[in-house]
Structure to design on (388 residues):
């Protein structure tokens, strides 16, 4: 088995339509005496062009986000799992305010992967005027980037118009990004030579990033004999979640999880299988909403929770029975996660040959570009990712 060294703090800003969350000012993260023992952070900021003709790119991002998560879930720094944060932007969309440069921060950095999926499915293409320099600048200014030198911080920007459009010099902001240890990977949706000619390659080079071109119409997911069973296990996994908080919060989180399952299923069995595998990984974090994760991680005490914060199935139980119920769900979840991981390993072995064939034909997609960028930048950090 080969081992690939990865960078450690990744920033993915995906740009697309959708409701805007509260924007975050760029400011140093608070320093902690536990910094050396904390999980290495991977901040991914991928900026997506949502102008007309970019539907294929958006569909690839929707379909392949879970595979990217699956790959990152296997990354390690000195034996420790990474903590993945994703931020979403959109640019080049005429439905956005001109005074903002037709740019929108859809979600600041978050480890809530269901929320990111939800925002991706809300993206709609329209327009437009694609200002790469300006959107990179906004990503640098508005996101809360880690100041830990161990972390991998990375902007990924994808589009098909000249990189140099707009009032902000993209080459200057790319140079500014790398001074802050933030790389910029550029993905041109079209012929490689065209992307080189229109500045995409130069932008990546100036920011120690990677330049790639993709075929946004290429096959986004490959079917395998294991997909159906993985999707079924993903549905069973949902039954182990015990959402808490206000009644509205409980209902909203249960709905969000279910809707993202349905969204993945609409894109095909392979996407549903990838989502199931991601839900079985350590990067699918729900301690803020789920009592099983919260209790296991020491972020909630069943004895101290208000009665109104409990789900209906726990309200009718005694304190001892509540504890036993959570332990039962945790055990069942662990069993399902292990079944999913074992089946997913077989699926990955099956997929390996087919992916190599597609790569040889030059049929790279969004997922291929993002993962290859990580591999090309591996020497910058000590993050290790096993590869079949």
């Amino acid at each position: 088995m080969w081992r690939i060294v990865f960078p450690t703090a990744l920033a993915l800003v995906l740009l697309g339509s959708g409701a805007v969350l509260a924007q975050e000012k760029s400011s140093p993260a608070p320093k902690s005496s536990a910094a050396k023992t904390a999980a290495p952070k991977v901040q991914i900021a991928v900026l997506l062009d949502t102008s007309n003709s970019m539907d294929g790119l958006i569909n690839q991002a929707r379909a392949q986000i879970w595979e990217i998560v699956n790959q990152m879930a296997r990354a390690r720094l000195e034996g420790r799992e990474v903590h993945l944060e994703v931020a979403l932007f959109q640019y080049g969309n005429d439905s956005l305010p001109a005074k903002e440069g037709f740019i929108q921060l859809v979600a600041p950095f978050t480890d809530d992967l269901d929320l990111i999926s939800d925002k991706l499915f809300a993206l709609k293409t329209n327009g437009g005027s694609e200002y790469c320099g300006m959107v990179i600048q906004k990503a640098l200014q508005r996101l809360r980037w880690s100041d830990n030198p161990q972390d991998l911080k990375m902007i990924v920007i994808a589009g098909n118009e000249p990189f140099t459009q707009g009032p902000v010099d993209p080459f200057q902001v790319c140079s500014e990004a790398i001074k802050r240890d933030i790389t910029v990977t550029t993905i041109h949706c079209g012929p490689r030579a065209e992307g080189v000619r229109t500045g995409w390659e130069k932008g990546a080079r100036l920011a120690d990033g990677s330049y790639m071109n993709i075929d946004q119409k290429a096959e986004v997911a490959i079917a395998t004999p294991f997909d159906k069973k993985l999707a079924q296990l993903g549905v069973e996994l949902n039954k182990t979640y015990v959402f808490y908080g206000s009644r509205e919060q409980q209902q909203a989180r249960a709905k969000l999880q279910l809707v993202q399952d349905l969204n993945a299923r609409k894109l095909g069995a392979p996407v549903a299988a990838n989502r199931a595998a991601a839900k079985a990984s350590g990067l699918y974090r729900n301690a803020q909403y789920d009592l099983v994760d919260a209790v296991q991680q020491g972020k909630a005490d069943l004895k101290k929770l208000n009665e109104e914060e409990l789900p209906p199935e726990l309200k009718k139980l005694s304190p001892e029975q509540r504890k036993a119920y959570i332990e039962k769900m945790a055990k069942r979840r662990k069993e399902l996660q292990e079944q999913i991981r074992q089946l997913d390993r077989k699926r990955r072995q099956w997929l390996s040959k087919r992916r190599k064939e597609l790569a040889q034909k030059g049929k790279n997609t969004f997922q291929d570009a993002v993962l290859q960028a990580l591999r090309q930048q591996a020497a910058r950090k000590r993050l290790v990712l096993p590869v079949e």
Q: What stands out?
A: Confidence is low (pLDDT under 50) at residues 1-35. The longest strand covers residues 41-49.
